[in-house]
Write a structure and sequence with these properties.
Blueprint lengths: L8 E9 L3 H13 L5 E5 L11 H4 L4 E2 L7 E2 L7 H6 L2 H10 L4 E3 L4 E4 L4 H14 L3 E4 L3 E7 L2 E6 L3 E9 L14 H8 L4 E7 L3 E4 L3 H4 L3 E9 L5 E11 L3 E3 L1 H7 L7 E5 L6 H14 L15 H10 L14 H12 L1 E8 L7 E6 L17 E3 L7 E2 L4 H16 L1
Parallel strand pairs: 1-2, 1-10, 2-7, 10-19
Antiparallel strand pairs: 3-6, 4-20, 5-6, 8-9, 9-10, 11-18, 12-15, 12-17, 13-14, 13-16, 14-15, 16-17
Length: 412
């Protein structure tokens, strides 16, 4: 459906900037609501939905049964009650069922296409665009967007477009290899909008540590807690953590990255099912069992060997070659504390290249929450990641992209 044409001037009722999740859904919704609308999607990539294909590890986690305000952060959250009430998880699933997609939920409430292929989600969206005769222009980089005499003029490197209404649905800076960029910033700032700067999120977190290098590539099921500079717990997540050379990763860490700040601390409980007292008792028993073995064996049967050695270093245990029988009760208590509180000071989130999403976008107070229309510019609408709202891992960001796009379509 992409087009290669000589420079030409096109006239449309609606131009949608961005052929991703929110843009495609917006176009379909608009046509379902008013079949006479003449709609164009302008996409800078050579095909639409490139980022959509990569979501959910290629399976496309399109929504979550636990969707709600508590799963999101950003200035639009306070205004988003309407959109989440109107577009529940069941509503999004019904919308997709009507255009041909069957879905299923895993044990955590994450919904995927039954085919387990993200391409199925993109295909039903593309085919719906074809049925509704929505024009899609791929490989077109926008040079400028201006409002002239109550109409919008969009100039690309190839063509010019004039429309009565425009939808900004071109995403964020996350995943630049998949087309992520900050173009929405320039477009919307030029229209007088306040823009919360994009920052990478749902990504690994870089931390200060001399120990990580020794355990890079290893994983551990644990409980991870984000702690602020005053020692207050901000958020706790459970799951698998991966240790890398200069950062920690995993879905639970990605979720914490949405709330993390420089110099916050991430505390890992490597054995969340055992209390400190339980661990101390176990370690005293280990000391007896392995009394004639070297100290580095004290955590045998408890932790993976390299992680065990890292914990002993973290606990400042001296002379690994000494015998377990030489470990004092205070040292055993320190080891138990380290297992329950293996802590790292945050430097920053990893970059946009590793980020699934970006926090930031147009300030929530500048958007009409019932239509997603700009409060500053009439007939300008803002969808998806261009809005200052970001959800946790689990389909929450795609849910908002689909919901905001569909809501706009109903109001065009």
């Amino acid at each position: 459906m992409g087009r290669n044409r000589f420079m030409k001037n096109y006239i449309y009722d609606v131009v949608i900037v961005g052929g991703g999740a929110s843009g495609l859904m917006c176009a379909i919704s608009a046509k379902q609501n008013n079949k006479y609308l003449k709609i164009a999607i302008i996409e800078k990539n050579e095909r639409v939905g490139k980022k959509l294909l990569a979501t959910g590890n290629g399976r496309c986690n399109l929504t979550n049964r636990n969707v709600g305000l508590k799963k999101y952060k950003g200035s639009f959250v306070n205004s988003s009650k309407y959109i989440f009430e109107k577009y529940s998880c069941d509503k999004i699933l019904q919308i997709f069922k009507e255009i041909g997609l069957l879905s299923f939920a895993d044990s955590d409430g994450r919904y995927y296409p039954v085919s387990r292929q993200a391409s199925s989600v993109l295909d039903v969206l593309r085919f719906a665009c074809e049925r509704y005769e929505i024009d899609i222009f791929c490989g077109e980089t926008i040079k400028s967007i201006k409002k002239l005499n109550n109409n919008f003029n969009i100039t690309t490197q190839q063509n010019t477009f004039n429309s009565k209404k425009i939808v900004i649905a071109c995403g964020s800076k996350a995943s630049p290899k998949l087309g992520g960029n900050a173009s929405a910033v320039d477009y919307l700032k030029n229209f007088g909008h306040t823009f919360v700067p994009f920052s990478p999120t749902l990504c690994p977190i870089k931390v200060k540590s001399d120990i990580l290098k020794s355990i890079k590539g290893l994983r551990s099921l644990c409980t991870a807690t984000l702690i602020d500079s005053k020692g207050n717990s901000i958020k706790t997540e459970s799951g698998e953590v991966q240790f890398n050379e200069n950062n920690i990763s995993g879905i639970c860490i990605f979720n914490l990255s949405l709330y993390s700040l420089k110099n916050n601390v991430i505390s890992l409980d490597l054995l969340p099912d055992s209390s400190f007292n339980d661990l101390f008792f176990i370690l005293k028993n280990q000391k007896k069992l392995f009394s004639n073995l070297s100290k580095e064996n004290i955590l045998t049967g408890i932790l993976q060997k390299r992680i065990a050695q890292a914990i002993l270093k973290y606990s400042n245990i001296k002379d690994f070659s000494g015998k377990c029988s030489e470990l004092s009760e205070n040292e055993l208590k320190t080891i138990a504390k380290s297992i329950k509180n293996f802590s790292f000071t945050i430097i920053e989130n990893a970059g946009f290249e590793q980020a699934q999403c970006a926090s930031g976008g147009v300030k929530g107070s500048e958007i009409d929450c019932k239509t997603m229309e700009s409060k500053k510019v009439k007939n300008l609408y803002i969808a998806g990641e261009a809005v200052d709202i970001c959800g946790e891992c689990g389909g929450y960001n795609l849910h908002f992209a689909f919901a905001s796009g569909h809501l706009i379509g109903e109001n065009l």
